[in-house]
Write a structure and sequence with these properties.
The chain is of the alpha/beta class. It has ten helices and 16 strands. A six-stranded mixed beta sheet has the order 1-2-6-3-7-15.
């Protein structure tokens, strides 16, 4: 049966390429959340032709949702002949902004040298296409299957997933008894099984000052200078501490096996163009003011060996210390997002099924890895309380979010075979059928 499944996937190679191109050509850029609905409808129409029940679910009142930018998710389900486990393939349909440095049309989906180029090709419309073709080939070879198969195309993963998987998980759509196993076709390389991810804490720090005329700064108190003292303390105290925090988690790449801190942004003093009531096309000079506020967004990635309260206290203790060193220093800190590290056990059924597929299709032992950043497994675990979940898909991890992003066609075909194999194993329990 698996040999026939592989042959059918090979026969659908051109179909796989065309589907991927069609998905790439829909510019689902997040933020703001462009073209989510037509992309969800493309996926839904394809699944409906395979006999799936298709539902479109808008995540009302989630971050970014509006009538102009509706957070439209699609979820498709096909029930088998008899009861059995449910296998769910989840892919996000949003992509990051294009950025600079492209030598091809970011939404042209050009095919060149066995690769499909375009924003989202690797992360992760190639994986979405591969999972759809795997499902189609499986149904062609085993139309009387037992259990159920689901596929979803969800939004906002690139900005936290709150309008996508988090919303659906809150509705019970990623929990037992509805779903038993989840495969997320993120681009972690076709011979790897991704067991989970590091933890994340996003926070906003604001320092306060007193506004005064810029020609007489001694009459005011600069919030930007206070933020400078925070940066200096991070450089001299926090970053050296983080460099010594190492994990036994198999995080890739190697540099992510330590704790990390990224400073996403700093905004202080005069409002940026287009903010604070200024028109978007304003390019005049600012007024001379001492900054009364400065805000910084930090992105702290932490390890399974670390406790979240300790992670937060490392920052707070530095800020409290500055209150002693700088008499006029004051601050506020606000949590934006916090997610604990997650790691599925290697003997979990979905891990074993995908691993068996890698051995069968690629003829090699799988590598077990942890993602440096989070993806939607976090919501499936924390909200859905479903832990039989991994990421597996085509695409080279390092290409995600890069200019001239691409996905290899051979990689998509082979990943589809692995996913089809895993689907068969999870629905039947047979890892050796042929």
């Amino acid at each position: 049966m698996l040999d026939e499944l592989n042959r059918r996937i090979d026969d659908k190679r051109d179909e796989l390429v065309a589907l991927t191109q069609n998905l790439i050509r829909i510019p689902t850029i997040n933020p703001p959340g462009d073209a989510y609905t037509p992309c969800a409808e493309l996926v839904g129409a394809r699944m409906a032709k395979m006999g799936f029940q298709v539902d479109y679910i808008r995540a009302h009142d989630t971050p970014g949702d509006s009538d102009r930018f509706p957070r439209t998710n699609v979820i498709a389900r096909k029930q088998g002949r008899h009861p059995g486990p449910t296998v769910h393939f989840n892919s996000h349909i949003d992509v990051v902004e294009v950025g600079e440095g492209w030598t091809v049309d970011p939404f042209g989906a050009e095919v060149k040298d066995g690769k499909i180029y375009g924003r989202g090709s690797c992360d992760m419309k190639g994986g979405l296409s591969a999972s759809m073709i795997a499902i189609q080939a499986y149904l062609d070879t085993n139309p009387q299957f037992n259990g159920a198969i689901e596929l979803s195309g969800t939004v906002d993963e690139e900005s936290g997933g709150f309008g996508g998987v988090a919303h659906l998980a809150g509705m019970g759509l990623f929990s037992r008894p509805r779903v038993d196993h989840v495969i997320i076709p993120e681009p972690l390389n076709k011979d790897r099984v991704c067991l989970g991810h590091r933890g994340v804490w996003w926070a906003e720090i604001e320092t306060f000052g007193v506004q005064a005329h810029g020609s007489m700064p001694f009459l005011g108190d600069s919030a930007i200078r206070h933020m400078g003292s925070v940066l200096h303390a991070f450089e001299s105290e926090l970053y050296p501490q983080l460099a010594h925090k190492r994990t036994q988690m198999p995080v890739v790449p190697e540099g992510a096996r330590q704790s990390t801190l990224n400073l996403n942004s700093i905004h202080g003093g005069e409002s940026e163009t287009g903010a604070g009531g200024k028109p978007d096309d304003y390019d005049g000079l600012p007024s001379p003011n001492v900054a009364e506020s400065c805000r910084m967004i930090l992105d702290r990635r932490f390890l399974i060996e670390e406790d979240l309260s300790t992670v937060k206290n490392e920052v707070v203790s530095i800020l409290e210390g500055l209150k002693s060193d700088r008499p006029s220093f004051d601050y506020a800190i606000k949590d934006i997002m916090e997610v604990l590290p997650t790691m599925t056990e290697r003997d979990a059924p979905v891990v074993q099924a995908v691993s068996d597929g890698i051995r069968s299709v690629l003829g090699k032992e799988p590598e077990y890895v942890i993602s440096p950043g989070t993806y939607d497994q976090k919501h499936i675990a924390r909200i859905g309380h479903l832990h039989d979940c991994i990421a597996y898909g085509p695409g080279i991890l390092d290409l995600a979010h890069m200019a001239d992003e691409y996905v290899g066609i051979d990689d998509m075909v082979e990943s589809a075979k692995v996913m089809g194999h895993a689907l068969h194993v999870l629905l039947t329990g047979d890892a050796r059928a042929s």
